[in-house]
């Protein structure tokens, strides 16, 4: 088999993992329930484009509490 035949599976796995991270971030945000549902549906129904739209226009800084340093 040609090595490029395996690239679709690997890229699909990467997109799936990024989608799960984005949905986890949406669910843990301070958005309303309807907003969480709509963003999650957008990301799952359109995995690549939904992910791009979320990271560009999702207002992640506004709705997420931010990260705290451990040390």
TrEMBL record:
InterPro entries (alphabetical): CLS_N
Transmembrane regions: 6-26, 38-57
Bilayer topology annotation: Multi-pass membrane protein
Domain Cardiolipin synthase N-terminal: 17-59
Main location: membrane
Record's GO cellular component terms: plasma membrane
Protein's UniProt keywords contain Transmembrane helix: yes
Record bears the keyword Magnesium: no
Location in or out of the cell: Cell membrane
Pfam families for this protein: PLDc_N (PF13396)
Protein source organism: Linnemannia gamsii
Keywords, sorted A to Z: Cell membrane, Membrane, Transmembrane, Transmembrane helix
Entry protein name: Cardiolipin synthase N-terminal domain-containing protein
